[in-house]
Amino acid sequence: MHPALAIAAKDLRQRFQDRSAIVLGFVAPLVIAALMSFAFRGTETYHVDIAVVDNDHGELAAAFDAMLRSSELADLLTVRTVADEAGARRDLANGRLGAVFVLPAGFTAAAHGADAASASAPVAVLGSVDEPVATQVAVAIADAFAAQLNAIRLSVAAALSAGAPPDQLPRLAAEAAQRRLPEEVTVQPLGATPLKPISYYGPGMGIFFALFAIGFTARSYFAERRDGTLDRIAAAPVRRGVLLAGKSLATFIYSLASLATMAVVTTLAFDADWGPPLAAAALMVAMTLALVSLTALVIAAARTERQADGLASILTFGLVLLGGNFVFISAAPAVLRRLALLTPNGWALRGFTDLATGARGWSIVAQPVLGMLAFSAITALLAAVLTTVPSRRLVSR
Fold first, then answer.
1. Can you tell me the distance from the alpha carbon of 289 to that of 322, in angstroms, rounded to the nearest whole number?
2. What is the residue-wise DSSP string for 200-269?
3. Domains annotated on the chain, with CATH
4. Residues 103-146: tens digit of each pLDDT
C-alpha cells in the first residue's frame, strides 16, 4: 500500500473508533437539521386572512370579491366576511386579519364613468405594522385589479373610437373582461420552486459539522507529534509531503462521507432536495477540498495542540456566521450576503439553494464551485508560505 494511503487508513480507523467523531459527522447534523426544519416548517409558503368591506354593493364590487375568492388565489388568501369597516379595523388590530380591502360607495358607477365625483375614490387597503408582507400582497392585488380594469376601459374606448356601435358596449365590455394583460411581472424564486427549510438546513448543518473535521485533524497531528509518532514516520523513507497527503486524504474522505450521508438521509427521510446528484456531488467535493486546505492552514499556523484547537474553532464559527448556515442568507442584509461570498460554505449554500429551487444546468453550480476552488487555492498557498517560515517549523521536543 502506498504510504499516503496507509496514513489515511490509519487516521480514518482512529476517527471512526472515536464516538465523538461519529456523532459530530453523522448524527448531530441530521438531528439539528431535522429540528430546524420542523421549526421553520411552513415558511416556504405564505397564506394570509383578508376581509372586504363592501360599501358599494355594485357589480364591480362583486367582481372584485369573486377575484379574491378565485382558485388562483385560494392558496394565498382566505377571505373573511366583516360587516363594517370598524369591525374590520378591530380584527386587524387584534391580529385576526392580515389586511382589509375597503370598496367605497360609488365604486361601480365611477368605473362606468357615470359618477365623476367618486372617480377619485379608489380601493383602500388597510394594513398593520405587524403584517408588512400581508399589506404589500394586498396592495399588489388591488393594483393588479385596477390595471386590469383600466385595460378593459381602454379597450372599449378604443373600439368605440374606431367606429363600433354604442349599443354593442355591453358585449365589448364582456369580451374585454375575458382577456388578461399580455405582460405581467411575477416575482418567483429561482427555478420557480419554493425552498423547503430542510433543503437549506440539510446542507447548512452538514457543512457546519463537517467543519469540525478541521479541529479534529489538527489536534491529532499535534498529538502524534507529542507522542513521537511523527518522528517514527519521519525515520522511515516517507517524505513530509506524503504524510500531509495522507492526513489530507483522510480529512477529505471523512468530510465527503459526512456530507453524502447527510444528503441521502435527508432526501429519503425528510424529502429534502439537493438537486441532481452530479451537480450536488460537485459542490460537496469543492467544499471538502476547502476543508482540507483550511486544515492545512491551521496546522501550518499553530505551534501547539491548544493553539490548533482555538484557531480551528475561530475559523469554524466565523465561517458559519458569515456563510449563513443558521439563517436564510437571502433574508440577510446586503452586507452579509456579500460577505458570505468570501467563504466556501457561503458559495456552497448558494449553489445548493439554487438547485433546491429547481434551477438546473452546470452553469448553476459552476460559479459556486469556482468560488470554493479559488478559496481553497488561496488558503493552501497561505499554508505553504507559513510552513516555509523558519519560526513556524514544527520541531519535536
1. 19
2. HHHHHHHHHHHTHHHHHHHHHHHHHHHHTHHHHHHHSS--HHHHHHHHHHHHHHHHHHHHHHHHHHHHHH
3. 3-40+197-392 (no CATH), 48-178 (3.40.190)
4. 888 877 776 654 434 344 578 899 887 788 888 888 888 888 88
